[in-house]
Design goal:
Helix 7 packs parallel to helix 8. It is built from ten helices and eight strands. It is α/β, with parallel strands linked by helices and 245 residues long. An eight-stranded parallel barrel has the order 1-2-3-4-5-6-7-8, surrounded by four helices. The chain is globular. 40% of the residues lie in helices and 14% in strands. Strand 2, helix 2 and strand 3 form a beta-alpha-beta unit. The protein binds 2-phosphoglycolic acid. The site of 2-phosphoglycolic acid has 13 residues, from strand 8.
Length: 245
């Protein structure tokens, strides 16, 4: 089970520290808590990655929300895979729909980012998902298959996929359980990789979604910003894992 908190452009230093103090208490004091650092992934903003990596990486894994597609160079404001590597970060979110939409990230760029991560031992968490229109036209599976062409097929690569229907992100709407099952089974038939679900995942719907055998975890935006709600979702994941032992 892999649960990723994607904080996007939220939380300043004080808020980041307060979250961690409260969250660390919760996971340390809960004697029933099984989840380890490979199960709990948090993606704060770039300025706090180093702080997180230094202070928190015994208990959780630190994730970058993005990286540049070149190794180095004249790219003002960008962050390279080498920089992330040098502070010990092991995961990077690639191709989030907000990056595709607001920063015009296209397949050729995303492919370069994925390859650069893999060459540098970073695990890309690659997001994909259909628009509302694609789903209404019943085109979602072919759109998804096309989006996933950026995934290298050869070799045994450490990649995590995240199904995030664009219309479900931050909207409070989620696909039905059957719709989630359909997409996850389809993608798992194409790639032998873990597939997370993301898009308005919260403490109320977490159990129904995370207990599906095709769902390997969740990518959580809004509901990961408060330590209470993020911890509640982790407890759901914890109980599902415990029931499988
Ligand atoms: P959300 O965001 O949980 O707020 O819908 C998920 C995401 O964008 O990764």
């Amino acid at each position: 089970m892999i649960i990723v908190a994607n904080w996007k452009m939220n939380k300043d230093l004080t808020e980041t520290r307060l979250f961690w103090e409260d969250f660390e208490n919760k996971i340390t004091l809960d004697s029933d808590f099984l989840l380890q650092k490979e199960n709990i992934l948090i993606a704060p903003s770039f300025p706090f990655l180093h702080h997180f990596q230094t202070k928190c990486s015994e208990k959780i894994s630190v994730v970058a929300q993005n990286c540049h597609h070149d190794n180095s160079g004249a790219y003002t404001g960008e962050v390279s895979v080498k920089m992330l590597n040098s502070i010990g970060v092991k995961y990077v979110i690639i191709g989030h729909s907000e990056r595709r939409m607001h920063f015009n990230e296209k397949d050729d760029i995303l492919k370069k980012k994925i390859n650069l991560c893999l060459e540098n031992n970073l695990c890309p968490i690659v997001c994909f998902g259909e628009t509302h229109e694609d789903r209404a036209l019943n085109n979602h599976l072919s759109v998804i298959e096309h989006q996933l062409n950026i995934i290298p097929v050869e070799g045994n690569k450490k990649i995590i996929l995240a199904y995030e229907p664009i219309w479900a992100i931050g909207s409070g709407k989620t696909p039905s359980i059957k719709e989630i099952e359909e997409v996850h089974s389809y993608v798992k038939g194409l790639y032998n990789l873990p597939v997370l679900y993301g898009g308005s995942l919260n403490e109320k719907n977490a159990n129904d979604i995370l207990c599906l055998p095709e769902v390997d975890g969740g990518l959580i935006g809004g509901a990961s910003l408060l330590s209470d709600t993020f911890f509640s979702i982790l407890k759901v994941a914890n109980n599902i894992m415990r029931s499988k032992i």
